[in-house]
Design a protein that fits this description.
Blueprint (H helix, E strand, L loop, with lengths): L4 H6 L23 H4 L10 H5 L11 H4 L3 H16 L10
The protein binds zinc ion.
Zinc ion (ZN) binds next to helix 2 and helix 5.
Length: about 100
């Protein structure tokens, strides 16, 4: 007996991603985790260009509510950013 593998590979949701383009309030746009889209397994802390896209100019990490990053990747990202900060690629959060 074979299980249906095809379905699992395609993903339960099918290929119709909700791009959040629905009209209405027009304000809230659901973003999809960028890393999931690109199938990133491990976020490279040396890739500071990429990391910079996820921090504010003050050096704060953009919350996932805003960036749309999923929990798993947000965590990776946080680790990566912290690591990058430690090796002085990125600025620490500036205070005042
Ligand atoms: Zn993700």
């Amino acid at each position: 007996m074979f299980e249906r593998r095809e379905r699992a590979e395609r993903g339960e949701r099918g290929d119709r991603e909700d791009r959040g383009e629905r009209e209405g309030r027009g304000f809230y746009r659901r973003k999809i985790c960028r890393f999931c889209t690109e199938k990133v397994l491990l976020i490279d802390y040396k890739d500071m260009q990429m990391l910079r896209g996820f921090i504010t100019d003050r050096g704060k990490i953009i919350p996932r509510r805003i960036s749309g990053t999923c929990a798993k990747h947000q965590r990776e990202l946080t680790t990566a950013i912290k690591r990058a900060r430690n090796i002085a690629f990125l600025p620490f959060t500036e205070r005042g």
